[in-house]
Amino acid sequence: MNPKKIAGEKAVHYVEDGMTVGLGTGSTVYFSIIKLGELVKEGLDIKGVPTSIQTEKLAIDLGIPLVSMSSVDYLDLTIDGADEANHDFELIKGGGGALLREKMVASISEKFIVVIDETKYVTQLGKFPLPVEIVPFSWETTINTIKKLGCTPKIRMNQDASPFVTDNQNYIADCYFEMIDNPAELNQQLNMISGVVENGLFINMADSIVLGKENGEVTIIS
Ligand SMILES: O=C[C@H](O)[C@H](O)[C@H](O)COP(=O)(O)O
């Protein structure tokens, strides 16, 4: 059993006719989006708001009607993956580089459902390097400032050794903290640095975590 598939598909049970739904990015929510595509073909009436160009393309291929975020005041529900989640529902996101749009979409969602496999449910955040979206202008200065918060930041690179560029034309600094003692404080400290656009800590945003397990079970934590 694929725990990502189990979690992704289970989360779709939250979706109801008439909803505007935030569509996250990544290999777990992929299964939610595939399932939504099937349900739309069977008559489910929803509108999606994609969190990345990748998800937008997938949703279009599947025939899921889309609207832009700017055309709605709020979303009924967002389903998205995460790289780590702790027991206080604090998350690290951005492994795929989509954290900025994901955070914007989650911030106006009535309900935010996180789909993960059990390996990502941790007692302390930080093993996964925290992605921070920064502007390309003088990125060296920005990562030097970030470093003072106690991590080793590395600019994310593509296989051809060029910097990875986000959908918003920015860079990602992957910040190796190992352990994050106070995620809420770090979230604020990072976002106060000039040159930082947004960081991958999602605090007080998630409502439920749908946890897929290797043995085929799924647990919903609310
Ligand atoms: O930027 C990417 C997103 O935050 C993803 O939701 C996150 O990285 C989890 O992705 P996956 O489900 O592929 O592990």
Automatic annotation (TrEMBL):
Example of a GO cellular component annotation carried by this entry: cytosol
One Pfam family of this chain: Rib_5-P_isom_A
EC code: 5.3.1.6
Keywords assigned by UniProt, alphabetized: Isomerase
Highest rank taxon of the organism: Bacteria
Keyword flag Cytoplasm: no
Catalysed reactions, semicolon-separated: aldehydo-D-ribose 5-phosphate = D-ribulose 5-phosphate
Protein name: Ribose-5-phosphate isomerase A
Classification lineage: Bacteria, Bacillati, Bacillota, Bacilli, Bacillales
